[in-house]
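From the pipeline queue, job 12 of 40. The input is one protein chain; the requested action is below.

Action: predict structure.
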Amino acid sequence: MALNFNLIFYLVLLPLWGLGGFLFLNPNLNAQNLVLDSLYKNLKIQKNNIKTKNDTLVVLLHNELAYELRYIQTDSSLNLAKNNLKYAQKINFLRGVIGAEYMLGFHFANKNEYADALKIYYKCLENLEQVNDLRQKGRVLNNIAIVHYFQKKYDKGEDFLNQALKINLQIKNYAEAARCYNNLGRIYFDQKKYKEAFDFSKKTLKTVEENNVKGDFSVYYCNVAEYSLYLHQDKIAEEYALKSLESAEKTQNKRMIIRSNLILSEVYIDEEKLEKSSELLKIAGEKLQKNSFPEEEILYLESMYKLHEKKKDFAQSFYFFKKYIAIRDSTQSTKNYKTTLQQDFEYQNKLQEEQRKIERKNEFWIRSLLGLGLLLFGLLAFFIFRAFRIKSQTLSIISRQKNQIDEQRLLVEQTYQQLKSTSDELDKSIMYASRIQNLLLPMETEIKSFFAENFVIFKPKDKVSGDFYWFHQISPQKAIFVLGDCTGHGVSGAFMTMLSNALLYAVVHEKEVYSPADILNYLHESIFYILKQENGINGDGLDVACCMFEKNENNNLKITFAGSKASMYYVENDVLHKKSGDKQRIGGKMYEEMPFENQTFFTQNNTMFYFTSDGFYDQNNKARKKFGLPYLQELFLKNNQLPLSTQKNNFLNALHQHQDTEPQRDDIALVGLKVKV
């Protein structure tokens, strides 16, 4: 009776959870040690007692041992699964074969050997049909989906996950159903469908909480945090990252401890809490030195260059950026190579299937003709000869087609490598250009030296922007702020911002011209002649809002504003005011000698000022409806009394809810300023 109970225990009760990465749950280390001790003890008993030795139980014990060793002794686990498969086949023990195939599929997938992983998993599914084990079938379908996910075959991955989810809900295996929801979230996240990914992550937590599923759910909390970060919901991201860290530390899940700290560091970078972020990155870095987690190493390097960029330490930022690019590209190259092997595997399978179809067709004819007997021998011989000729011709055609496909594939691969190399070089150049452009923007400390509070929303459509903002403090009581929107976006717009920055530096710093109208007149004349626009060939220019702030001793502000097809907004006593600039733009094919004019007015202390480019309110949604300037002005009134960090989040959330999954159509710049006299 004890032996039968052991069989039931190892066949039914011990779970095999699945594949690595973000898609698995690590066991508690103490519990794992107890399981290993028990396995070794039972194996010793079976091997020593020859008379009572049960071969099927030995196979099951070896499969379970391979599972428990899958992370801590990977090579031992793989070799054990290979040997166990041969032994299970030898004694014709189908359940043992299934368990060994499952573990081999796990190891092949973890080594990115996708073709071998799918081959063994499909064989495992065929064997499962014979034993009708829905619980194990659900796990295998889930793992097949993950292999497709790793190859970015999202439709196939989603199809297999839905099959697995249906089975697990049917048999009430809620732990595995939660894993299906979690993996569906990762598929949508990789496709940048962050709202859908967030919804699936909440379904995951709801499933485990409502059904009292036990285990380490740090990966589930971490996914909610990561998706929230991409949805600009920093508070939710922080809450769930802390939950993930707490859960991971309880079970000593090293990978998730590192991952949780990295997500938290991203939240604190967004919130400008740079010291907190530095502390968390230091912890993650120290743990990564002791453990090999390639995905987390890439995230760590990305966070480090972002942090140093925020700190304006551009030398360190560029150092970590280069390491991040190198490791990311190396990882991607390996994945691309494995994907190519998988395509070869699928092509060979298709070719073999076509061959089998031809052979089955010929066999049908042969069997039919043999039934006619000796009286139809002559006719039979004719058809055999005809079938042989058709087969030879078909094989010849297939051989030629295969050679053509091989040649085309080689050409495609060569072309792809050339395009990838060119694209990588271009991406690196544009990324470096973005770093240079960011250096020209005012530092946060510069702006804070004059304005009591400020926020900046700066979202280039591409890596570089045609929008820019510029600041110069003339004295403790006087400063100039400029927001510009140049013709175009991307590289062409970025060149115009560089030219505009240089001209602003020349007229304000060197010529000491402080009148906003005179500054715009200088920009207009200089761009017209520098770009040789008198020939009528180039019509590039920019829209500019230029404002000089002067603090007076009587506790008010003197504002001098001039604009080129641009406006400024300010809220005083809960009333929104708008100052519109001249209708003439700076630059263009036609030079108009119509000087820009200053507008001078006074405001009270603590007045809120806003400057924006048209990219914010021109952004459309799925229905092609723009965000709209009236709605933006309504938000100015609604938010002007709030802390500026809260204002920034509210504006970003409003933009995201309107835009949803629609692509950004133009560069976006929105700046809020508050002066205290």
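Job complete. The radius of gyration is 33 Å.
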